Amino acid sequence: MQRMGMSMDSIGDVSQVIIKTSSKDILIEQPEVAIMQMGGQKIFQIVGGTVTERAPQEESQAASQPNLLYLKKMLNWLQIKLARASRKPSEHWKNVMGI
Question: Are residues 71 and 44 both part of a single domain?
Fold first, then answer.
């Protein structure tokens, strides 16, 4: 396989694979997963495991945490800017407008 530019490795200790579509999520528990690389492409092979299907899940709370952190930082930044603007309104607007 190496002569043809192909390589194959397995990923150990995989507990779950989730395939998300617009109409359903497919969960594969305890699968064996192999990766074959060929011509700059990766091919994932998923074998065995218990397969279940469910309705598509919304983005989890854990995945949305970075967005919440960003919003908190932006709110803090805006509060600082507004506090500075209320102290020196004319100077603030000169800086904002680049005058």
Answer: no
Question: Which run of H or E residues covers position 23?
Answer: none
Domain hosting residue 85, numbered range: 61-97
Both 34 and 68 in one domain: the answer is no
pLDDT digits (tens, 9 = 90+) for 36-55: 998 888 999 999 889 999 99
The C-alpha angle with vertex 79 and arms to 73 and 85, in degrees rounded to 5, equals: 140
What is the tally of structural domains in the chain?
2
Model-level pTM?
A: 0.51
| DSSP classification of residue 14 | -
The helix/strand/coil state of 48 is coil
Cα distance between residue 44 and residue 91, in whole Å? 59
Closest CA to 46 of 59, 28, 25: 28
